[in-house]
Design a protein that fits this description.
Layout lengths: L1 H22 L9 E2 L8 E7 L6 H12 L4 E4 L1 H6 L1 H9 L3 E4 L12 H17 L18 H8 L4 E2 L5 H4 L6 H11 L5 E4 L7 H16 L3 E3 L1 H6 L6
Parallel strand pairs: 1-5, 2-3, 2-6, 2-7, 3-4
The protein binds zinc ion.
Length: about 240
């Protein structure tokens, strides 16, 4: 009986540990994951997950253009295929495009073939949209365990997570003002801000974007793309 109990406890601990590793924003088993960079310079990266979508893409591009801010869009392959013109506009406006998988499934306990197909198919679509820069990867739901980090590390692809996720910590009906206040309160030099703005249900996040930009600019922050942010990483000699 004691043995059964101990085995149960060990299994529980292992499952718990695997869950922690799969969900960590700062650690993965292979390769590099970045959730923010270490710098004293007041630079931050705005990152938008999912999409592209019709209509909203134009709106967010207008907001960013008006504010003269470059951001990073982690797009889904499936939606890139459907809305390639929207993705082309993102690239044309000088923003960075990252890979957010093809079908947005949790990439945990998936085969190497599945992972390869998901990432390569989306990378091709990103290039088809006219984006020629380095393509970083953001795992759907931030989830990764063995195969995904292994594939990324073998292919020299950096995982980009985030350190500011207002939507997760606030009520789903949080107002644009509440979202903006959360971001402004928690942001640090080198932060990576995650927002979802592409779908109608995320209208408050979309409307928070100009507030966040104005507030942070007022505090001396500059908005950069993920690539530019990575270049600011303090070199530890
Ligand atoms: Zn997503």
């Amino acid at each position: 009986m004691k043995k059964v109990f101990l085995t149960f406890i060990v299994i529980l601990l292992i499952v718990g540990l695997l869950w922690l590793v799969s969900s960590s924003r700062t650690f993965q088993l292979f390769g590099k994951i970045v959730n923010r960079v270490d710098t004293d310079k007041k630079v931050v990266a705005l990152t938008f997950d999912d999409g592209p979508a019709k209509g909203v893409t134009d709106t967010i591009l207008e907001i960013l253009d008006k504010e003269n801010v470059k951001a990073t869009f982690f797009l889904k392959g499936k939606e890139l295929e459907k809305y390639l013109d929207e993705a082309k506009n993102i690239a044309l406006n000088g923003h960075e495009i990252g890979n957010h998988s093809y079908s947005h499934k949790r990439m945990v306990f998936k085969s190497m073939d599945f992972i390869t197909e998901e990432i390569e198919r989306s990378n091709k679509l990103i290039q088809k949209a006219g984006y020629n820069g380095t393509i970083y990867f953001r795992p759907p739901y931030g989830k990764k365990l063995f195969m995904l980090p292994y594939f990324l590390s073998e292919n020299n692809i950096t995982s980009i997570s985030w350190d500011i996720e207002a939507e997760t910590h606030l009520d789903k009906n949080a107002t644009p003002d509440e979202i903006s206040k959360y971001v402004v309160k928690h942001v640090k030099p080198g932060s990576i801000i995650l927002l979802h703005v592409m779908y109608p249900s995320r209208i408050n996040s979309l409307n928070a974007v100009p507030l966040i930009i104005d507030e942070l600019k007022g505090r001396g922050y500059e908005f950069v793309t993920v690539s530019e942010l990575l270049n600011e990483e303090r070199l530890i000699l």
